[in-house]
Amino acid sequence: MNTKFLLSFGHWLLLLTLLLLAMYATETIVQHEQQHARSQQLRHEIASAGQLRALLESELNIPLYLTIGLTAYVQANNGEISPAEIHLLLPELVHQARHIRNIGVAPGNTLRYVYPLSGNEQAIGLYYPDLQEQWPDIAAIIAQREARLVGPIELVQGGTAFIYRLPVYLNADSYWGIISTVVNIDSVWRLLEKQTTEQEVQVAIRSLSAQGRASTAFYGDDRLFYDDSLLLGISLRGALWQMAVRSLAPLPDRAQQIRIAAYGITALLLCLLGWLLISRQHLRDSVTEQQRSKLYLRSMMDNVADAIITTDPDGIIEQVNLSCYPMFGYATSTLPGLHWSVLLADPQRLDEVYSATSNGNAEYETAGRRRDNSTFPMAVHRSHIRMLQQSRQLLVLSDLSERRQTEQLKQQFISTVSHELRTPLTSVSAALGLAVAGALGELTASQQRMLQLAHTNCQRLNALVSDLLDIEKITSGTMTLELSLVALRPLVQQCIDEMLLFNNNRVITLHCDTNLAKVNVEAEPNRLSQVLMHLLSNAVKFSPTDQPVQVSISMAGNRVRVTVQDSGQGVAAQFVPGLFSRFSRADNSDNREHGGTGLGLAISRSLITLMNGSMGYKPAPQQGSCFYFELPFIATLQPQTLP
Questions:
Q1: Which end of the chain has less neighbouring CB within 10 Å, N or C?
Q2: Going by C-beta distance under 8 Å and a sequence separation of 6 or more, which residues neighbour residue 69?
Q3: How far is CA 57 from the centre of its chain?
């Protein structure tokens, strides 16, 4: 498991602490918001309650004041009021207050006068002591000599109402009777309901006794008195009411939005902080890893035998490995700051070196110069790199002195051995050929088979020596070819016919574009036949016996191409880059299926190159290998009939 991106315990503890603080802060904000919303609602309830209380007090106290006025008139006339005066006063009083249902005058506790009379006929002559349920309250009012609002009361004449009862005393001691004002409760409630609807509040009203005991609500829902509704008293003459007010508008609850926003921001900030902590830790690990890699790279560079140099774009040396100093005879740390061309035997050829190594894979051989002005063969490999966002040159300089000596010794050995082997091999091969042909007389079947085997292997050994000699000439540059005019198609057909002589059970087809049947090329006939025979031999060797080998002659741009295609397994992708190298084989094991030295393709390519051509490989369209070589198409060499 990769742990370098995990947070440490301290980092997790920090993030957890910040999360808890954010949760505490969020819940505190939510609580304050709820308190603020409740305070806003409470202010609305208080304002509405004050208006409703003022409305009730004004609407219900007006009838009382009118009743008190009538009482004062009776007292002023010492109780001597004629029916005509009563019938004159009562209508005026009733019309001055909109909620008075009727006013009754009961001298001696007997109701004698009622206005309006219509609908109240049953109340005329009512003797209050006969009202068993109401008389105790009436008697208490008379005894206490104070007005009182009672109700709601079921009226004798029908309906429910509030009643103001005011006892009348003459000369402060003589009880005269009672004046009762019946208040239309429905009218009051309609007015109250209209106001509560406008102010979007819910109201309940109940009465309180002198001892503080509360009755059941006679208006509204009694449950309002037992929750968090606003409670306030209503001051009425002779009555104590309590009103509960609660806003109908739902308490705005923004807790969810606040929590979502706060926790979202918290999560974002914590993720950002976590990313910063991880980045910081990754940066610290990267710096440590970079330092470790730098030391490791420096150790590797210092232990490489070749000189490794980095320069700026102008060629000024910035860094070198330790191997560079003994190679060129300089003291340690003296090369940085110098131009790297001081290491060339001929600094004037710097542009030539740059041109030859413009391809990062190219290697250029030149001469290097040591501190003591001695020179040595050197290979230069140059590439461009970027360090710290800036372009740099990377130079790898190799001392070729030992390699040149080794190659020279190897070539000398190969040349010597090949030349020494060629003469006896020719003699042995000739002798075996004569013996196989019958020069020694008739041979038994086993003797013929053994001599034929020896002759065949001697020919193979002779071919190997020829290949080695060819490689030696090619490497040393001493091989020369005498190019002449060659009719290509007949030469290809001749090679095919020769191959079929030794492989009469195989099929080799030749396809040639019609306009190329008489094409001529400039080549060395024997060497071109050698190349063709090698390609055909390989194709036959690696193709199944029931599959044909296809040969074609076609044009490829301004070149004539000869293609040899087999139906074998093809060449593995990893082996393709080394196909034309010397001693290169796809199967180098001791028990390989097919023999060979691995020199044929290298020799063939070199020969084609000496004929000003090129050789290549590509996979066959279906299956197998496709080798081809191309030679220049020279128009002046072609017959006039060739377009």
A1: N
A2: 93
A3: 71
Q: What is the SS3 assignment for 19? A: helix
Residue 217 is encoded by which pair of tokens?
Answer: 């609500």
DSSP conformation letters of 593-643: SS---S-HHHHHHHHHHHTT-EEEEEE-SSSSEEEEEEEE--GGGS-TT--
The answer to whether 486 and 451 have CB atoms below 8 angstroms apart is no
Q: Give pLDDT tens digits for 590-622.
A: 444 444 556 778 888 888 888 899 988 888 877
Class of domain 59-184 (CATH, top level): alpha beta
The CATH code that applies to domain 484-637 is: 3.30.565.10
Task: Go through 621-634 and write b for each residue having 16 or more CB atoms within 10 A of its CB, e for each that does not.
Answer: eeebbbbbbbbebe
User: Which of 153, 143, 55 is closest to 104 using CA atoms?
Assistant: 153
φ/ψ bin of 183: left (φ > 0), alpha (ψ from -120 to 50), beta (otherwise): beta
Residue 97 has pLDDT above 70, yes or no: yes
Pairing of strands 520-523, 484-487: antiparallel
- CA separation (Å) from 28 to 147, 258, 496? 54, 11, 98
Per residue in 448-460, pLDDT (tens digit) is 777 767 766 676 6
pTM across the whole model = 0.40
**Phi and psi dihedrals of 104, rounded to 5?**
-120, 140
Residue 557 DSSP symbol: T
**3-state SS assignment for residue 307:** strand
Asked whether the beta carbons of 356 and 333 are under 8 A apart, the reply is no
Q: Rounded to whole angstroms, how far apart are CA atoms 323 and 331?
A: 11
Average pLDDT over residues 144-154: 79
- Distance between CA 136 and CA 563 in Å, rounded? 136
What is the CATH architecture assignment of 305-392?
2-Layer Sandwich (3.30)
CB 524, CB 532: distance < 8 Å: no
Phi, psi of 98 (to 5 degrees): -80, -15
- Token digits for 160? 């429910």
SS (H, E, C) 469-489: HHHHHHHHCCCCCCCEEEEHH
Structure confidence by residue, pLDDT tens digits, 226-274: 887 888 888 777 778 888 888 877 777 777 888 888 888 888 888 888 8
**d(C-alpha 316, C-alpha 314), whole Å:** 6
Beta strands per DSSP E along 401-503: 484-487
Structure tokens at 170: 């003459």
Reported as a single tens digit per residue, the pLDDT across 207-233 is 887 777 888 888 888 888 888 788 888
Task: Express each pLDDT in 318-366 by its tens digit.
Answer: 888 888 888 888 888 888 888 888 888 888 888 888 887 777 667 788 8
CATH for the stretch 404-476: 1.10.287.130
Q: What's the CA gap between 563 and 221, in Å, rounded?
A: 107
The torsion angles phi and psi of 395, rounded to 5 degrees, stand at -115, 130
Q: Give the separation between CA 366 and CA 375, rounded to whole angstroms.
A: 10
Q: What are the backbone dihedrals phi and psi of residue 58, each rounded to the nearest 5 degrees, phi first?
A: -70, -40
